[in-house]
Design a protein that fits this description.
The complex is a heterodimer of chains A (685) and B (325).
Chain A lengths: L1 H9 L14 E2 L17 E4 L6 E3 H12 L7 H19 L6 H29 L5 E4 L5 H42 L6 H7 L10 H7 L11 H16 L12 E2 L2 H29 L5 H10 L7 H4 L5 E5 L5 H12 L4 E7 L3 E2 L6 E2 L1 H12 L3 E6 L7 H9 L4 E6 L10 H10 L6 E3 L7 E2 L12 E7 L5 E7 L2 H5 L9 E3 L9 E3 H6 L8 E7 L5 E6 L1 H20 L31 H4 L7 E2 L9 H5 L4 E3 L5 E3 L7 H10 L5 E2 L11 H8 L4
Parallel strand pairs in A: 5-6, 6-7, 7-11, 10-11, 17-18
Antiparallel strand pairs in A: 1-18, 2-3, 2-4, 8-9, 10-12, 12-13, 14-15, 16-19, 18-19, 20-23, 21-22
Chain B lengths: L3 H9 L22 H14 L7 E5 L14 E4 L5 H11 L4 E7 H7 L1 H10 L4 E6 L34 H5 L7 E6 L3 H13 L4 E6 L11 H5 L4 E5 L6 H6 L3 E3 L5 H8 L5 E8 L6 H4 L8 H13 L14
Parallel strand pairs in B: 1-2, 1-3, 3-4, 4-6, 5-6, 7-8, 7-9
Antiparallel strand pairs in B: 5-9
The chains are: A alpha+beta (685), B alpha/beta (325).
Chain lengths: 685, 325
Amino acid sequence: MSDLRFFHLTGTGRDAALAPPAQLRPALFAGFRELTALRYDFPVVLVEGDGEFARSLTSVVDELLREIAPRGMAGERMRQSVLRLEREIRVLVAKGAFGSLSSLWQRAADRLATRGGAPLARDLASARAALGADGEVVDCDARLPARLVTHAWRTIERRRIATMRRHLDGLIARLGDLLRADHLRSRSGRTAAALERAIGPNHRELFDFDAMARLLAKPSGASNLSDTRRERIEAALATLRSEPFFRSESGFEFTFSRADAALAAFRERLPAAARLVRAIAIAELEVGGEYADATHDEYFAAVDERTLRPEDLARFPSYLVHIDSAQGAEGRTQLLEVLSSSAPLKLLVVSDDLFDISSGELAVSFEARLATSAIGLGGAFVLQSPASHLYRVRDRLSTALSAPGPSLVSVFSGAIPGTSVPPYLLAAAALESRAFPIFSYDPTAAVKLSLDGNPQPEQTWPEHELEYADTDQQRVVQRVPFTFVDFAAADRLLASHFSRVPTEGEAGALVDIRTWLDDAQDWRQALPFVYGIDLTHHVHRLVVDEQLVRVARRSIAGWRRLRELAPHDAAAPSRNEIPAAPDVAPPVVAADAAVAPDAAGPASDEPYIETPRCTTCNECVLLDGAMFAYNENKQAFIKDPTAGPFRTLVEAAEGCQVAIIHPGRPRDPNEAGLEELLRRAEPFR
Amino acid sequence: MSLSLTECLLATTQEHRELADYQTGVPRWCNGCGDNAILSAVQRLCRDEKLAPEKTVFVSGIGCSSRLPHYMNTYGFHGLHGRALPLAEGVKMSRPDLHVFVSTGDGDCLSIGAAHWIHALRYNMDLTVLLHDNRIYGLTKKQVSPTSPLGTKSNTTPHGSYLAPLNPLTVTLGVQNVSFVAQAVDWIPELLAEIITAAYRHKGLSFVRIVQRCPEFQPGAFDPFVLDPKRTVILRNELSVSAALSKVYTNQREHDASSIDRAREIASVEDPLPVGILFRDETVPCYEDLRRAGQPHTPELVRGGLEAELDRFTIWPGTVRAGGA
């Protein structure tokens, strides 16, 4: 035990026999051997065209089967054939094949046909004909984050650009119409040559254009455009036609590999953006006939890049910056500068490893901490997700890439160099262990921080069942947490932070890592351990050194901080939560009486109308326009109570459909029939 | 689609208009008619939202309700019976920049125009539809409409009507793509104005059923609700209800308008009468956006369209089989 204690404190193993097994993996990985046999989120089809930008192969196949394979035995053969093909595509992609879904489909079908014969080939050919979605197929590997995010960004930008392009083309056409109409009214538009050009070539000989020009010599209709207006329209047209932001060829480039270059390009293009915004605004006012020289000339003279409104800037394309893990101090400063700015830069930062040992001390890398740091900058949309769950958080990815201003998408690829475990498993393990939780921070939302997508978010560590046979070959089932240290056991570079426990006899001096982290333990009493497995799936207990425990403590403190910042589940029910039972109360039938006047207005001897409740039914104003009138909302009030007798007030109250006129007390005690009138007025008191 | 800068500059030259500036002519509705309250509410909306009369269109079909465009100092289109919605859709398709309102009645919309009603909801074009529901054909002097209560005696049903009334809210909430449904009553003008404003601001087809009194042919039909505020339940979500109104209408409930299931439950309640926004879904796409309405008719577009049409009737040399007619 003294060897293990020495190891825990120093990280140095005295006994080579206690070195962790080769290809060490967390014990909970035992259940995942062959990913290609599973139907899960990968591979993903990067769909071309409208609709969702990405779909899992599984969802594409399921949709196809719903369409072509009827339920029950009738569709069973087709279902089996297509599911075999799905697995074959998965195998191909896992081996490094790439291409569109349709090409991989054909390749996989050809391979299967050699084994399955003609019926299978026929099934797969007819299924392929019904295949709706197509696009590049990507697996969860080191390249996935860049390919998926770039594809999502291109899809969003293509839509943004197409929308603006249509608007610009519409404005160009309409401004052109204004100039054309003006030309037709002008003297030059009515010359014989101009008139001849306006007639199709087939029937030109039928007309005498000189005679027509003489007849039309005098312009009719509205006067011509003023020189100022024509010049303004022509200048706006020239800017709209030559703009470099919304055209596919010879336009600006919007993808970068350095944040400083992207920021410089954005700033350099701001004057051009301001000129375009100015031209669009002029065009919009001109085509609507709303341009007022006296007011608007002065405004437009002052429009430049400083006066660009964020809403208008958000119409322009954003800049995608893909940054690799390796960032020097200068690069890190640039990232923070971009994230603090208002520039529409979309930063994709991909980490292949969450740990940094370059300084000699084990620590979580800068890239892995960047997203949590970016929250503090306040103005950037931040999304963090391991690559394994990028497909699951695709809606939030879309939001991040569509958001105005800067966004950070921080992804852990799971492709740890030198590790044989599939990147999908490692990325998912980083999420499970809280080493790289999913979160998004939307600076414009009411609830800014969301931890949706994390497993068992109410727990410090997610728990799972570990089932194994002990030394007596007895089945043991244990619920074990998946901790930061378990995740570290999958990283080959960190193997030196683990030491194998030699015998069962010394188990009493060991404490599982969760207990160790939760309740500060004394290393003199016990040592922390985790379960690991080797290539033959033998379970080992592994003691952890103190350095790794320290990093684990910092990591879990980070997760707890996120949980404190995010709203609690109870306080923020999801949008789809079923609301409480109907709360429309059963009818409470009151006495057959008008609304009690004291509920709406003061009991008074003066007549009054509950004006806000007036329905403008005209009854009272038609009865006596001198006594009753409408206010600015066309609701009645008593303009002059002395304009008529008490009888008029009572009749108006009786005629009012919503019973909101209160006649008060009579002014003239000698008015004829007063006793009866008072009786009739009583319900309206 | 206009830039924020353009909107800002337009505001610098915008004329201020009073409610009376949106009024034209003298309404020829009966005294006490609930249509007056609706007219007044839409005029308030136009004034408060600063709608330019030349950019605003009121479209209607046939019926008392459909006289409303005559009294608005905006553009208007008094159409055929039941056809207000397709007309309004055509206007919107051609000129998506206009504010298009539809004024229709329970006969116009729910009977002869029922097919258009269903499909207009499905198309979800950006229209504000005001259903004036007085539960009777008033213009033709009292015949039962689809919403007339069972047993209503009228010129066409002297022994009382035989069918249970149709509930426009539950039908509306059952149509795919429905995006905004509200219920108002003409006798609470404050809420009527609030609801119509929310409907106008909604992007998509906003359907507002306005329960409306007809003192001439359904006298006293709504008195139980008019005279007893407890028989109205105000759905609280985005509407602001004044303190004075809350004092009178104390029966109020919080309602999550994003839940269509809750909206359907509430829609089926007739007593107490629910008033407010029942359902809203901003994510439903508008047909005019899907079809990219309002494209300028450039010579290329017109030529392309004409050629596509003519190509349909063109017989290309070589396509006619030998011996064919």
